[in-house]
Fold this sequence. Notes:
Blueprint: H1 2-9, H2 16-45, H3 48-65, H4 72-78, H5 84-117, H6 120-129, H7 137-148, H8 152-176, H9 181-189, H10 191-199, H11 222-247, H12 249-281, H13 286-323, H14 331-338, H15 341-356, H16 360-382, H17 386-411
Helix pairs in contact: 2-8, 2-12, 2-13, 3-5, 3-6, 3-11, 3-12, 4-5, 4-7, 5-6, 5-7, 7-10, 8-9, 8-10, 11-12, 11-16, 12-13, 12-14, 12-15, 13-14, 13-15, 14-17, 15-16, 15-17, 16-17
Amino acid sequence: MNIAIRTIMMPSRWPAFARGMIAYGSAEGITRIVRLAAILVVARQISPEMLGTAALSLSLFELVRVLANVGIGQRIIQANQAELIAICNTASRLFWIVCLGVAVSQLGVAALALLAFGMSDVAAMLAALSAVYLFMPAGLVQIFLAMREQRMGATASVTAIQNIADCILTVVLAVLWPSAWAIVLPKLLTAPLWLLLARGTHAWTPNPLGGFAPISVFASFGPAILCSELLIAARLHGDKLIIGAMLGTEALGLYFLAFNAGLGITQSLVTACNLVLFPHLAKTHGEELETEFRRAFIIGLAALVPLVVAQALLASIYVPIIFGENWIAAAPYLSMLACAAVPLFVGALLSARFRAVGKPYAETALMAVATSAALIGLTVGAQSSLMLACLGFAGGLALVLLPAAAIQFNALRPTQSVPSKGGQ
């Protein structure tokens, strides 16, 4: 009994995945509390139409930013020790090329928003946010090296501190300058802080004497991961574009609040799973990998499901108390969207496993089907009401990702072999 108690009380004896989830979960928990307070202030200072404009700008920003996820960091995580220096040297250069290319792409989207749709505010916000990509390349290698070493506490703190600073700036700007810019501008203002913190996670500088890895070593993961990330981004942010186009900016404001206050809270566990599980599984092989995958599945769902149930059942009580009577109409949408966290978490688990066993294109195929089902369900539902749109979104995800998880578990074999990591 004493041994069991000591094991529970000592985090160093917990499974690596649990420790990583706790690190990110704690950081996300603190961030969500601060963000909840920020949303409370924003909801009372900014109209649904202003919030809708900010949501549109940020959704386009997030969609474009996905172009930077081309599998470079995943290759750093999977590299063996002998090739690590050369891979990091090449990765650093590739990060600069990719980020500058994405910045130019976002400026193109901003020009399109202005010239083709007359959205001057959205165009100006996108143009300003393109400067974020100038800060990213100098800190990304350090972040992925820390993840490679499973130092999740260090990387989690970077994200938490940046998000908290973002929320504080949002509150200050919302009070002093009530506008859509109060929500958008902090994304740019906190970029230098992220860079400073990211560079402190790992003591790395380019070492030309270690050589440079050929770009071809990044090709096995790059296209598949980029496609998967694009599909995930389309699912998580394209929904807001559809709602805005079909139901207007006021409905988009309600949806945006419901999404961030409802699904956004449980989404923290989904984000943590994405960041923690792949580096953990990448260090394992064969039966050990499958055991760790099953364990992660059980631990994750045990933490997530109670949160989802509580959010869905209590939304009508806490929404008017926290956000004010003006937002009580968002409560049923919040309840419905909160349920989408379960299939999203399952999808994150499956994605990490596919990457760890060297099958990124299987992940791409799954994300393509899930994204299509979610957005089609959303679009069909939006023709009738915002509630049916939320139902279509959550239902589409569940109909694809939950059966996919069942199929994967049935297919697992204790002696299943996986490709050698050195051959990636």
